[in-house]
Write a structure and sequence with these properties.
With 155 residues, this protein is of the alpha+beta class. It contains 2 helices and 9 strands; from the N terminus they run H-H-E-E-E-E-E-E-E-E-E. Strand 8 and strand 9 form a beta hairpin.
């Protein structure tokens, strides 16, 4: 009988631990949805507070209307020579109204030869898609285009 009582007490302790532990982890003030990052916060994190300039050198290609927000094609082409003196260091693609604004980040070197990136992103609804380009001299260039989403992709 002692073994049966031991097993019962272990089951009771396990049940209490299973109930208490999650509630302790989700205490007041604990962040919910750890992947939430607004557009302004994402730009500030990327640029470190530096100024961002709209530029015709950044060519952003997105569809005007996306039938499915889960797979929106995006192409970013930067008209800049990829020399050691000044090259495209990074291309960031952001959605202005997504729960997490950062959709894609790609780091480049002069060896890449072109400041070009293409991917597919998720958009939770109709919003602007922004291409934020970091140059090796520390400057930031930007291009934005609106995309109308007919079926949501995030949620």
């Amino acid at each position: 009988m002692e073994r049966r009582n031991f097993i019962k007490s272990m089951c009771a302790v396990t049940a209490v631990a299973a109930v208490v532990t999650p509630s302790a982890l989700l205490a007041k003030g604990a962040p919910k949805g750890g992947n939430v990052l607004s557009y302004d916060a994402a730009v500030a994190a990327i640029t470190g507070g530096k100024a961002v300039t709209d530029s015709s050198k950044v060519k952003l290609t997105v569809p005007e209307i996306a039938e499915n927000g889960a797979v929106v094609p995006v192409k970013v082409n930067v008209e800049s020579p990829m020399t050691d003196a000044n090259y495209v260091k990074a291309i960031h693609v952001l959605g202005t109204k997504n729960g997490n604004a950062r959709c894609a980040d790609v780091m480049l070197t002069p060896l890449n030869g072109k400041g070009y990136f293409a991917t597919r992103i998720k958009l939770g609804g109709t919003q602007d898609v922004v291409a934020l380009v970091e140059m090796s001299d520390g400057s930031f260039l930007r291009a934005a285009k609106p995309v109308k989403v007919t079926i949501g992709g995030c949620g």
